[in-house]
Amino acid sequence: DTEVTQTPKHLVMGMTNKKSLKCEQHMGHRAMYWYKQKAKKPPELMFVYSYEKLSINESVPSRFSPECPNSSLLNLHLHALQPEDSALYLCASGPTPLLNGQYFGPGTRLTVL
Amino acid sequence: AQSVTQLDSHVSVSEGTPVLLRCNYSSSYSPSLFWYVQHPNKGLQLLLKYTSAATLVKGINGFEAEFKKSETSFHLTKPSAHMSDAAEYFCVVSDQDSNSGYALNFGKGTSLLVTP
Question: For residue A94, which of A102, A105, A109, B59 is within the disulfide window of CB 3.0 to 4.6 Å?
Answer without folding.
Answer: A102
